[in-house]
Design brief:
Layout lengths: L3 H12 L1 H5 E6 L5 E8 L3 E7 L2 E8 L7 E7 L3 E2 L3 H8 L11 E12 L2 E11 L2 E12 L3 E2 L5 E12 L18 E15 L1
Length: 196
């Protein structure tokens, strides 16, 4: 009995090593950006960002494919550098921030190469619609320690969505053909994480 108990505990520990190495991280909003761009009049790209981003990441060093991401973005924080345009984007024509104050991304699958994430498949909920979205991870940094003793790491990712898939259908036709606002939205993320 005295011999079996330690053997059982050792076996149990070895059977679930990833639990011990899964680490919780939180997004640092001050050093994180979610930027987008979309065609205007079919001739140029208009850029913008969301300035209120929160979220958490669970990263498993031993089995990175078991990692997860959960992000929330306040739609009212949209910022294109033009108040009139931003007010229009917050209106029912677009984000309808009064009815849908938050968009969210929740991961479902993490693809790994060389022990780091390369793709994150998940669900984006925006304007009351949920669609599958794939983030292409372009960079995932090693950890560093900041001057205040916090452990940090960063990541860069990008994706594309069609705004009509999320019920964002407002547009106006141009006399010469084409429309005022394009349908494809290109999104880029620069994320800094702090280990909890």
């Amino acid at each position: 009995m005295f011999i079996l108990k330690p053997i059982f505990l050792i076996t149990l520990f070895l059977a679930i090593p990833h639990f011990a190495l899964a680490e919780n991280w939180k997004i640092d909003p001050a050093h994180t950006s979610v930027e987008f761009k979309i065609k205007h009049l079919m001739i140029s790209w208009v850029k913008g960002s969301f300035n209120d981003v929160k979220g958490a990441v669970v990263f498993d060093e031993t089995e990175p494919e078991n990692s997860s991401v959960n992000v929330q973005i306040a739609t009212a924080s949209v910022d294109t550098g033009n108040k009139k345009r931003d007010d229009h984007l917050r209106s029912p024509d677009f984000f309808d921030v009064a009815s849908y104050p938050v968009m969210s991304f929740v991961s479902k699958k993490v693809t790994v190469a060389n022990d780091v994430p390369t793709q994150i498949n998940g669900e984006l909920t925006l304007h009351g619609e949920t669609r599958a979205v794939t983030l292409d991870v372009e960079e995932f940094s090693p950890t560093v320690t900041d001057p205040w003793g916090n452990t940090r790491r960063g990541a860069s990712a990008s994706t594309k969505i069609n705004r009509r898939d999320f019920g964002l259908t407002w547009n106006k036709a141009l006399e010469a053909g084409g429309v005022v606002v394009g349908e494809e939205v290109r999104i880029s993320l620069e994320v800094e994480l702090i280990k909890e």
